[in-house]
Amino acid sequence: MARPRTTSDEAILRAAARVLGRLGPGRLTLAAVAAEAGLAPATIVQRFGSKRGLLLALARQAGPGVRRYFEDARRQAAPGDAPLEILHAALGAMAATVRTPEEMANSLAFLQLDLADPEFREPAAVHFGIVREEITALLREAAATGGLAPGTGTAALARSVHVAYNGVLIVWAMTGEGGTLREALRTDLDRLLAPHRP
């Protein structure tokens, strides 16, 4: 009879994400992930096969996992919170996973894998699509409930919000402008959305 796993794959991937944030994909090692997860390196090899296998598993989990930020924002919303406030909460929680310019640099290093390697590009496209879908849904809800002006093109605005989100991450990492990353994001998104409010 096989021994039960005391640490789930999900817990290992959470540990890997923390190590990735600190070290980036180039300096990440299976030993570092094992230490973070409180496991022997052999366990990581047994579960994921290699560093590449671990990083691919992390990439594949990130796409569906990103929906959680939007689900959590909806669930935690106060009664009467407008869709645009839920949008702020979801994107703010996503941004809060990056705390320093160094972590942003490590995130961009992972993006290089997404862009250059077809195996990584596929889960990155899933992640991208889910974020755009969730943003679009909240903007449509805002338009339907009077939070956006009549006739607002929500699909085009969703693209602009998505672009602004990613742009704010980079500008904040370069300049530190706007306070915390979450504060900077709120300021720039409010500026973008202001002309579309009734």
Automatic annotation (TrEMBL):
Superkingdom of origin organism: Bacteria
InterPro entries noted in UniProt: BetI_C, Homeodomain-like_sf, HTH-type_TetR-like_transc_reg, HTH_TetR, Tet_transcr_reg_TetR-rel_C_sf
Keyword Repressor: yes
DNA-binding region boundaries: 29-48
Domain HTH tetR-type: 6-66
Keyword set, alphabetical order: DNA-binding, Repressor, Transcription, Transcription regulation
Presence of the UniProt keyword Repressor in the record: yes
PROSITE patterns per the UniProt record, alphabetical: HTH_TETR_2
Protein name as catalogued: TetR/AcrR family transcriptional regulator
Species annotation: Actinomadura rugatobispora
